[in-house]
Amino acid sequence: MNPDFSKNHFELFGIAPRFAIDVAALDIAYREVQREVHPDRFAAASDAEKRLAAQWATQANGAYRTLKSPLNRGRYLLQLNGIDTEEERNTAMPREFLMQQMEWREAVVEAKASKDEAKLDQLAADKRREEILLFTKLAEQLALPTSMSAARETVRKLRFLEKLGEEIDIAAEEIES
User: Fold this and answer.
1) Residue closest to 91 by CA, chosen among 161, 167, 160
2) pLDDT tens figures, 77-90
3) CATH 1.10.287.110 region(s) of the chain?
């Protein structure tokens, strides 16, 4: 075992640093890394070797979670390009997008109040369609070094949709209980 903690997530798994990745190849590479650092392999090792294996496993787990999620992968690619998405500090969005978000959130509240599961299902489907469009746009933006600022805004929009999805899920759970 000779981990290199200076590698980025893509390098750790031997994957090209781009948004569109082969998720099956990522899964295989992750399992290979995990096999190398599995605790059973270090049962008779020194405490230092066990700690190193645990650190490597932790790094691999975090890298895998990041690359497995399209939104987190987009954030990470921006980070590798020196761009902060500013999701927590900058919530400024185009007016049309914000209006759509407000309408969707109001519709979630109404569907929850009237226990309308079909409406929540429709909202979830609408959200998924919007996410697909934005993920497609993000892939195009991340492929062009001149589009990184636009990619930052797309990631922030996707974060809004992620939060909307959480609200839909909570409302659906409350209706079911």
Assistant:
1) 160
2) 999 999 999 888 88
3) 9-68
